[in-house]
């Protein structure tokens, strides 16, 4: 089977996930700037963070399927597992926001990030196995240092929120999650040089 | 008429159905793990179950239209009937979840599953009739044992929820519905062997 | 400009419109069949009616753009006007349902139907003018008796809800609206005979 | 990388943004025309305004990518930034509406318009730089007088809402925003003459 419908369906799901998060933004009850900042300020920030995360995954998915010509049942299911993990972002983002960055919701957000990153790795490996020994994707992924660094940062964030008491742990965790975003968004000169290198997000 | 827009429209509807169910997940009021498990735990499970069901249908739809080259008005309407049945999943899933797996919502969920499976069979037959005596889809479907087993399991689930008193009937019904999912998700060696065999879900 | 993105965007909007109406279906508070029928029964019927209306428009849009090869700015805007009218269906459907089929919401629903039908006619005419004297669409549309009958039925429904006192006027109006649906859904032998004849809904 | 998935993903996001705003329209509590006009009248107008804005952007995006053959990482991110700005319209539109056109929400709406227009300019420039010295887009954009006039009108609207006391400032701001819409929707004879000239919205 060709990849066109897998790409179209994934585009649809990711477009919805990235957009419905804005539905969680509650309109402030007052009409002043202070009402906006008080009620919705952190909501806008977490929305931005999750928007960029989904954007990174869409970019990477786009790059990856650029090197895929045919899919089988295993690829379809691994892709659905990734979409399932990503579809939980509106929920985990909303909980982080409504709890005012409490410990447990931040841990759950990190688990969501980690589960998505692992689902991406599984999808990548299923495709590489399907492509066989001359896999174009395997050569493009290479040692995948950025992908591995993301997994480490996700785990570090989860652990710091779990183990370090007080707000420090939560802020350190958020720092880890933002670092992953920065690592992927800041332009990587190699990417445009090796124009067809697919990227793996965290 | 070609199939591209039918596929694109179906992809769009299924992407939305599979994604908006997550909007039904209410953010827990507290900030602890117990709040998450208490309020949202079963919600996550029913979301997962319905996500996988829609995923199965998308996979099967993908396989089926792979063998279709042209559509007529009858195919368009049979396809819309299937999409209508599937679009009710967010509603029936939410009722099952909010009622805490009460008898009537579970029966309705089973009826939704059964109606979707029947709509799929109707769509399949409309396409086969449209393709004429040398229908590629008819050869691919073959005896459709998996499809028939799903219908039987759906009916068995509905009947057990209706007829067996107490929680046992409800759990037996859910067991039937999960069994259908497992039957379709667990890789079927024949599918990749007969690469173009379309699948029919329950 | 080619039509592919116009079709893709319209498919996206119609897929969303047809699907988000199910979000309006409120989960019943009780767990019995009577709760479902009492709270949600008419909701399911109005959802079905509007789903079929949007389905008719999608079918007709599909047929119409089958005969269009290039679009200009006027076509894009006429298409957006049609999508705007259709995007109001979730709102007018919900009002009809929540008011328990009160007079004014039923009139508004009819106005929504009429506005959509007129927007469709405008789009058709803009395309025909853009295609020039040998317009394939003009030949396909022919005398467009079905389209004109739909406009008459829409106006008749609006007037009967406005002018005939008591529930009779409302039910007559709903009868007109259902008659339009039946007229378009019931297979028209000419459509498959003149395979490329585009349809215009009401 | 080719542009097809960028276009498909953008179409998906814009289709959702343009459609979910209708979800913000609350169904009136009464069943009379006065209830509709009282509760939802301005909502319909702001929905229409934002619908047309998103429609303008979709049209312009459509024109612009018509002249683009390949994209790189920078184009993908500039495009995501534009989609992020546009995805905030349902939120800012709802606040304007619920506040009854209070000063701060109107300013925020103007900031949203301005940010979207700037993101569009950035995307345009990133594409032009990527296309190199013979950029087809650069030639098509030309002096981009309409784009510059839009930026001026957006800033004028924001300033008038901020600086002119009383309702006059708010209404002047809304006048500026409507003027931008009119400028872009009213057919521009040059556009169809120079058929491939891409447009830049405000």
Automatic annotation (TrEMBL), chains A, B, C, D:
It is found in: Membrane. The keyword Transport applies. It catalyses: K(+)(in) = K(+)(out). It is a multi-pass membrane protein. Pfam families: TMEM175. It comes from the Bacteria. Keywords: Ion channel, Ion transport, Membrane, Potassium, Potassium channel, Potassium transport, Transmembrane, Transmembrane helix, Transport. Its main location: membrane. The chain crosses the membrane at residues 7-25, 37-59, 71-95, 107-128, 149-164, 170-187. InterPro entries: TMEM175-like. Belongs to the TMEM175 family. This is TMEM175 family protein. It comes from Catellatospora aurea.
